[in-house]
Structures are given as structure tokens and as C-alpha cells.
Fold:
Amino acid sequence: MDLYLFDFDKTLYAYDFRKRLPALSRVSGVSQYHLAKTWWAAGYEVRAELGEWKTAQDYLDKFAEVTGARITLDQWCEARHAASTPNAGVVDALRLAATLGTVSLFSNNPPPFVATLAKMAPDVAAILGPNVLVSCEIGIRKPDPKAYLAAVQHYGGTAIDTYFVDDSASNIAGAAADGITTFHYTDASEVPALDASIRAFGSRHPR
Structure:
């Protein structure tokens, strides 16, 4: 079984934190500076991505405790969506990969991301179905090589039969260290090369 793992932020979807923070400030009534300092700079988002708070509501409760900003899941999604726009060519590459093997999202993100993905990125969610694997669920973040092995094992695959797409050089290196075939995506000009790479991977064995 061939397994195709796709990162989300800056890969399937463009992501701009500079748009997210103002949107979050607007819905919460708390300043951008205070949110950035108390939550992101203090390391809470990374802890959330590692699964310290198990549910979206647990995350939102901790967010309110730390920042003073009480927001709903819909408001969290609204701010996240404001910072995220589809990279159509990569979404099409995901669709192509789905014709060749099992596809899955593989992303460093917290529980609210999992809870709102279908609303935030319906095109991606429709292709993936239930195959959404996020760091908060496995308790390991990329680029730790153990994260990729956990993903491969989750789907009952092998590293040699796994293909991984990500924008981060360190994440790519982590996967390559496990023997996974990788593609380092940086911008839309690379979509034809990505498509060709996926096709080559899918046809490497005689059928």
C-alpha cells in the first residue's frame, strides 16, 4: 500500500499568521500583542500541538485562562480561516495521489484544527475523508523522526512505500531520515514537478 502524507499550512493551504492575529484580536477583543506574548511566545501553542489539551474545548478553556480571551470554536475557526487560502495546485496534487494510494493529512496543529477542518477546508476534507492525522493526536510534532514512523504505523504502511509533501526543510529532513520519499514544496511554480514526482512514485513498481 502506498501512503501519501500532505502537510497543511503553507502546503495544501497558504497560511499567514499576520492575518490570523488581527482576526483573532477582533473576535476576542484582546490586543494582538497580548495574544502573541501570552500564548504563542510563551509556548502554549506548541504544547497544544503536542496534545496537552485533548479536546477543542480544553484548548479554548486554556486559551481563555492564559490570555483572558474567551472565544468560541466558530470564532477560532473564523480567525484561522482568515489566514488560510487554498493552494489549488497542491490540492489537485492531493486529489491525484488519492487515485494512486491512501492519502492523509499530516500536520502540526492543535485540537481546534481537527474539529474545524471540514469547515475551514472543505475541498481538502472531501478528498481525505477520515484520514486526518495531526500532531495533537499522536503527541509528537514534526520534524521528530518518530512522528513520521507513528504516521506510517497508523496506516499499517512502511516508510519505503510512503511519500511526504511539506514546505519545511526541517520537516522534509525528518521524514527523509526515516527512508520516506519526500517533496519539498515552496511555491506554486513547483506544482508540475510535484505532480510528476507523485506519478513517478506511484508507478515505480510494475502493476
The radius of gyration is 17 Å. The first strand starts at residue 3 and ends at 6.
